[in-house]
Input
Amino acid sequence: MNFLTHLLNGISLGSVYSIIALGYTMVYGIAKMINFAHGDVIMVGGFIIFTFMNTLGLNPFLSVLIAMILCTLLGITIERVAYKPLRKAPSLAVLITAIGVSYLLQNLALLIFGAEAKSFSSVIPVKSVSLAGGRLIISGETLVTIPICVIIMVALNIFVKKSKTGRGMLAVSEDKEAAVLMGVNVNKTIAITFAIGSAIAAIGSALMFSTYTNISPTSGAMPGIKAFVAAVFGGIGSIPGAMIGGILLGIIEILSRAYISTQLGDAIVFLILIIVLLVKPTGILGKKIQEKV
Amino acid sequence: MKAKLLKINKSTRSVILTVGMILVAYIVCQSLIATGNMSNLLQNLLISMCYYSIMAVSLNLTVGILGELSLGHAGFMCIGAFTGAIFSKCTVDSIPNTFIRFTLAILIGALAAGIFGIIIGIVVLRLKGDYLAIVTLAFGEIIKNVLNVLYIGYDSKGIHFSMKDAVSLNLEKDGAVLVKGAQGITGTPRNATFTVGVVLLILTYLIVVNLVYSRSGRAIMAIRDNYIAAESVGINITKFKILAFSISAALAGMAGVLYSHNIATVQSSKFGYNLSIMILVFVVLGGMGNLRGSIIAAVLLTLLPEYLRFLRDYRMLIYAIVLIVMMLYNWSPACIAWRSKYSQKMHIRKGAAQKKSEKEV
Output
């Protein structure tokens, strides 16, 4: 029963990772860059929900909706100001800029909200369920997180495969120049990708902070990096890959915390990243891309 | 005299200028201390300016010269700091001479970090670009996390390791705990002085400059500029990448030894991602590939927040803005166009001024 509890917690954490990983994997697939600031967009989303719900006493669902809109605007702004001018710059320059944006968001939040962690009350109104005579307790957060993750994944997959914008995204991710010739507006497509990624990040932040109940300016950074690990694990650029990678990573993290060492959980997650990149750099569902001279 | 100076080639002149600059700064500081004109605050900062400069120069070797972004540079500093401090604590009785002990500690710290650099380099340098950056970050965090739970003690039977707590080390009665997990190492002999720091900084600079101007250095820069072309003219990419990466790591280890002998407690939590980014800011502000710039940026960015107190709360914010603005300034098409326009104007004005002066002559 103990093992089952850990497993469920792992799937729940993994679902959050996979929601965040969707943002990384879409942006990497289309703009070929690691959006380091994505984790911090999640933190910003958390603070927006916190402000509207805990401080102003707004309805939780309305707060999440506002957070989604504001995060979308934030994502588009970041893309326009920091990343768009660097489309043709070397990847080193783009990566350093992304780190700069991540740092900027963290420190702005630090100046506004202070360094100490704030307690975040859950936005999820579902009560926990107790099974097998109280030996297995599933929290309401877990019950909600897993189906939401599946719904987002399926919806996004349909959007990308069926809608015109979605197919434009696929075209840009495959070949930017050819996509331009086919009449796809590349800049608009990239902006939409950032917008969708950031809106999903706001949902992810609602779920994540509801489970972990604490929020501080740095609480987006580590989950962000781990979600990136999940995206790489599942195969970067692939939407189902992000889901599989996220859930596997969540399970591995919770189980290693429970059975190996509490403090070494992060180290084990990073070790997995290194092993995956060395053994199968394309991840579980990724495609191999041959580099041309 | 002037003609003689011009005969020295450009690179040598640049080296002389940088070393001269460090020495002048050193002499000014020492005379200020001797005459009692330097505040305690600044005196405390002197050594940290040295190890931050060393870190910046060594990271510049990876980022600027080799062209790969390393986000785990603080991890190597951490390894250097811990091994150096452990060595000094173990041998504080057996080697009474401070100079010999500290020199050995520096060498051992650099060696340990260098060995880790080779091991990590072999793994990491198979990857490229963004992946490489994220894996160096991963290694930095792993080093930090493992040292955070590591307990080391020694007694008459030798050195004991444990990942749980100090009790499970099973020490004899005469034993002592060296590393106490998250509490780190306390009571390292505080041998670091400003003079040692400056000597190490000059040494670091000369090592890196020497590498850059050597045959190996040209090979490393060729890999940075176009690795496919470099490979096709017969440059062994893996060898030169690991060479640059491990030298960079060893120098960071040296800075770590300086750090651990300057401060009462060394904790692994200090060597996180944030420190790596701070060093990266020094490198970016000083100019990637420009070693003198790294030193100047490290010194300035260590000094400024201490002097402009109102800036202190905004220090990290300024770092973030420096990173973004520098990259946009260097690479955004609008900025490039603006700069070329501006420099053209300057050029015309300069040309006109020259013509005018020629006429006057």
About this structure: The beta strands of chain A are 118-119, 129-131, 136-138, 214-215.
